[in-house]
Amino acid sequence: MTETEIWRLSGTDLAARTRAGDLTAEDAVTASIKRMAEINPDLNAVVEDLSSEALERARKLDLARKDGATPGPLHGVPVTIKINIDQAGHATSNGVTALKDLIAPDDAPVVKNLQDAGAVVIGRTNTPEFSFRADTDNPLHGRTHNPWGRHISPGGSSGGAGSAVMAGIGALAHGNDIGGSLRFPAAANGAVTVKPGLGRVPAWNPSQSAERGILAQNMSVQGLITRTAQDLHLAMPSLIATDPRDPFHVPMPWRGDAVAGPIQVAFSKETYGYDLHPQVDAALEVARAALVDAGYLVEEIQLPDVFDAGRTGYRALMGEVYALMKSDIDAAGSQTVRDIFSVYFEEFPPFAGQELLQMMAKRTHYARGWSLFMQDYPLVLTPFLPQPFFKPDRDTEGAEGVHEVLGCAVYSYAMNFLGLPAASVPARLAELPNGPQPINVQIAAPRWREDLAVDACQAIESRIGRMCDVLWEKMADRA
Fold first, then answer.
1. Residue by residue, what is the 3-state secondary structure of the chain?
2. Which residues cross the membrane (predicted)?
3. Model-wide pTM > 0.85
4. 181 assigned to active site
5. Among 93, 158, 163, 181, which one carries the catalytic annotation?
6. Residue 220 known to be catalytic
7. What pLDDT score was predicted for residue 305?
8. Which of 100, 251, 270, 474 lies 20 to 30 Å from 245, alpha-carbon distance?
């Protein structure tokens, strides 16, 4: 195979070939590194190039295999790691200039789990300051661009991850999500992801000097952004391997028991006062039809407390951020991010004191309602955003910008507050006046059943094909 053919392979196909011995780990990594060298200067998705150590690791994997070692499930698969997660010997800068020399003493659990499975880290991807924007730009590493064009933000906070994997830099991209930071980049770039539920993936940064706030612990999760849904089935079983450094991780298998009979899907186009764009409407109809064709029973129905749960959850999170992070943001953040946070606090007035404690407790009320609802409807198909994805720096344009970027994203952060899995998958390519743009939909699932959401993503993907193939044609035409 040529190097171009190799980097185009899905993670699933690539792992099958490296494990069978049809390709070496060095072949796989070399192809991705060359693709990175070709396109990353324009995208600025990867901000720390680890090519040299990646090739050294790939050669060691090949030698170990030659000596009789059993290849791991991700043998030789190139991956990227977001710069807010510890990787031994590298800076966990989180997009903040003051943290540029915060060198990790050890690997975070997700880095260890990926490498234990045979994956090879080829680079570290960009994030906004403090990983707290739905766009990706910072004074330390600069702006990341969307491979579809500069008319669309790459999303955030895992914007470097989404841009890299869809452009062909690595088959898997690590990211994380406290309010949408896996799903925003997936939607922006036309990628696939599943935000795992609470307790699913072990998490901890050995470099941290204090524990995070309790809502940050309960709402933030680690995950992967991929080009195909099948790649999530390939890689997530390795990512969820237990790690004693996360005392609240729940060691459960990736696949749950089969659901008896046709799976019922609750379907809603409700946007809670925001206008539903015709292209998002069309994407939802494609997704619904694909699921029906695949044998799901899809019913349009009112959902329990999405808006209230989402707004309450994000206002509570802003209360915790105000109390625990505001001084750091004021001291180390740029004027841009300080201004954005000021508007966040206007859009989501922070709960404080007794009211904050009451709203944190109310989380269980919302989660119980959804748990009961999902006894009948194990999957929930909704918009992710009511409009096509926004332009770069839209969240710097005051209250109106933040309202469009984050205020309308209740389906996103509601799932973080509830602790439920939520997948994002492209269902349409919209040809808009400013250029082509993928449109993703969201599929929520019950606790511990990420696999059901990914299965549904596969059904939708089978209808529209791989969005990356369309993207690569358009990138080649622009070159």
1. CCHHHHHHCCHHHHHHHHHHCCCCHHHHHHHHHHHHHHHHHHHCCEEEECHHHHHHHHHHHHHHHHCCCCCCCCCCCEEEEECCCCCCCCECCCCCHHHCCCECCCCCHHHHHHHHCCCEEEEEECCCHHHCCCCCCCCCCCCCCCCCCCCCCCCCCCHHHHHHHHHCCCCEEEEEECCCCCHHHHHHHCCEEEECCCCCCCCCCCCCCCCCCHHHHHHCEEEEEECCHHHHHHHHHHHCCCCCCCCCCCCCCCCCCCCCCCCEEEECCCCCCCCCCHHHHHHHHHHHHHHHHCCCEEEECCCCCHHHHHHHHHHHHHHHHHHHCHHHHHHHCCHHHHHHHHHHHHHCCCCCHHHHHHHHHHHHHHHHHHHHHHHHCCEEEEECCCCCCCCCCHHHCHHHHHHHHHHCCHHHHHHHHHCCCEEEEEEEEEEECCEEEEEEEEEECCCCCHHHHHHHHHHHHHHHCCHHHHHHHHHHHHC
2. none
3. yes
4. yes
5. 181
6. no
7. 86
8. 100
